[in-house]
Amino acid sequence: MLTIGKLAAAGEISPDALRYYESEGLLVPTTRTASGYRLYGEDALRRVRFIQHAQACGFTLAEIRELLQLRQTDKACCNDVRQRAIEKRLQLAAKIRGMQSMSAALDRLIAECADGSQSVEDCPIMAALEQIDGGMEPAR
Amino acid sequence: MKVELIYAAGCAECMTARAGLRCAAEAVVAGVEWAEVDVLDALDYAVELGVLTLPALAIDGSLVFAALPTPEQLRDELLKRAGHD
Fold first, then answer.
1. CATH code, domain carrying A48
2. Which chain B residue has its CA at the smallest distance from A90's CA?
3. Residue A27 lies in a domain
4. What sign does the dihedral A102-A104-A107-A108 (CA atoms) show?
């Protein structure tokens, strides 16, 4: 059995993060000592790694909980996991597009502000950001 | 009119629903073009449409149903677009 400190050290994560995982229903201690300290079984480190890897792929904690629940669902199969991964890929691609659009908008503003010695009041970037009718394409 | 079902291969829900949806579309709009798009073959197009969850249904190049409609919902939407409502 691992204490929260030992599990945190092994998973290179803070004890607070482990407690947060617990509050989110992702990681439950196997038992507690008589004094109430959390104790984790051997599979806890695997679970922590799973959560970390899924987060690195962009899954939120709520989505990770759903992935973990699939394991306990008899009817679920690999295609259910695959579909979630594809949906996450779509969401990431949409975010990238949005950020590219923001980046292009900033490029246009930067190009408009060739004379950096103007006062802030006369700054074309500030003026463009202030335009009521837009003039900037919204990020998608 | 073109109706596109955007799906991920292996999606059981899509396989179950597609025949009913296709029948509904063909019953309402003569000569409707029905297409089934594997999202992994057209990821950029799916992102362009705004697809974030699967399966989804697009009509004439616009995402209309972010989740699969019932055949009745699809029929109503197609009738509306055809100006028959």
1. 1.10.1660.10
2. B52
3. yes
4. negative
Interface predicted TM-score of the whole assembly (ipTM), two decimals: 0.83
The string of pLDDT tens digits covering residues B50-59 is 999 999 999 9
pLDDT tens for A37-63 read 999 998 999 999 999 999 999 999 999
Q: Give the total number of structural domains in chain B.
A: 1
| d(C-alpha A52, C-alpha B5), whole Å | 34
Scanning A38-113, the segments in alpha helix (DSSP H) are 43-56, 61-71, 78-112
Condensed to tens digits (0 to 9), the pLDDT of residues A13-34 reads: 999 999 999 999 999 999 999 9
Q: Which of A80, A90, A92, A97 best probes binding to B when mutated, by most B CB atoms within 10 angstroms?
A: A90
Confirm whether A129 is domain-assigned: no
**B34 CB neighbour count, 10 Å cutoff:** 16
Q: Which domain holds residue A17?
A: 1-58
pTM for this prediction: 0.81
Q: Is residue A132 part of a domain?
A: no
| B40 secondary structure, DSSP code | G
Contact A90 B12 (CB under 8 A): no
Q: How far apart are CA B28 and CA B30, in angstroms?
A: 7
Using the structure block, give the residue that is written with the tokens 């759903």: A66
Residue with tokens 């201690």: A29
Convert the pLDDT of each residue in B30-56 to its tens digit.
Answer: 889 999 999 999 999 999 999 999 999
